[in-house]
Amino acid sequence: HDTTYRVTCRAAGDTGCVIVCFDDVTALEQASQMRRDFVANVSHELRTPLTALMGFIETLQGPARDDTTAQTRFLGIMQSEAARMNRLVGDLLSLSRVESDQRVRPTTQISLLDVLSSTVHALQPVAQKAKVTLVFDPPDHIPTMIADADQLRQVFTNLIENAIKYGGEDNTVQVTLAAADRDPALRAAGVRVDVTDHGPGIDPAHLPRLTERFYRIDNHRSREMGGTGLGLAIVKHIIHRHRGRMRVTSELGQGATFSVILPLVP
Ligand code: ADP
């Protein structure tokens, strides 16, 4: 059931018998199905803004040729559609880069405290614009660790941006950093970062699929918020490269906490 076999027959030497082989190629078949789905998704995601752009160009060349009010409005929409395509291509490049980095262990000594402080600082204007309070209480001392600072910055940017986007207005997003020496997810000493929002939360049924490429709980809302559907897939690969774990705890109406647990030495 749900298993794919490749069946091959060949002669067994001069014995006059035949060898029939049943190879279980389920994993291979699933991988190629995933690749096909991915290409179909990317094409769809790119085609949607492209179709809109082509439609507006046609209107600007025809019916709206002399209507300056319509021109200003349409150019604004075209700009945001082009920006969406640009974000999608940027995220696709990031995803492909982190996927091909998987086998290369990070080697640089970094301060996670510095990475997190600068990330929170850079996102304060985004939070203000969304009427969200972004809080980070830095701990007194956190040991340095071996990691890729740019990639971890991307992890926390994606998680904090999601908390701001999906948490809704008048929300508070809390970021905490602590030592996680005895976390069951790790064999050695590590650190743990929690990003918590008090928004509508996530139905537990969605949790196992959140890090799949292009998986969104509410397609329309995600697109409206400028999401590409690739943010958590990128996060998953970066954490995996650092031999860490991500845990999501949430209930509908109770907000969500995304926890990243990283070893000090991957
Ligand atoms: P997107 O670009 O759509 O935000 P992500 O991969 O970052 O894609 O997230 C996948 C989906 O997970 C989102 O579309 C959203 O439905 C859900 N999600 C992520 N973070 C949160 C959060 N803090 N609260 C509620 N839903 C979230």
UniProtKB/TrEMBL annotation:
- Molecular functions (GO terms): ATP binding; phosphoprotein phosphatase activity; phosphorelay sensor kinase activity
Q: Where does it reside? A: Cell membrane
One GO biological-process annotation of the entry reads: cellular response to phosphate starvation
Query: Which GO cellular component terms, listed alphabetically, does the Swiss-Prot or TrEMBL entry include?
Result: plasma membrane
**What keywords appear on the UniProt entry?**
ATP-binding, Cell membrane, Kinase, Membrane, Nucleotide-binding, Phosphoprotein, Transferase, Two-component regulatory system
- According to its UniProt record, this protein's enzyme class is transferase
What sections of the protein cross the membrane?
none
Q: Where is the Histidine kinase domain?
A: 41-266
Quick check: keyword Acetylation in the entry?
no
Provide the catalytic activity annotation. ATP + protein L-histidine = ADP + protein N-phospho-L-histidine
Instruction: Tell me where on the tree of life, at the top rank, the source sits.
Output: Bacteria
State which Enzyme Commission number(s) the record gives. Answer: 2.7.13.3
- Stated name of the protein: histidine kinase
Species annotation: Ascidiaceihabitans donghaensis
Q: Which residues of the full protein are shown?
A: 80 to 345 of 345
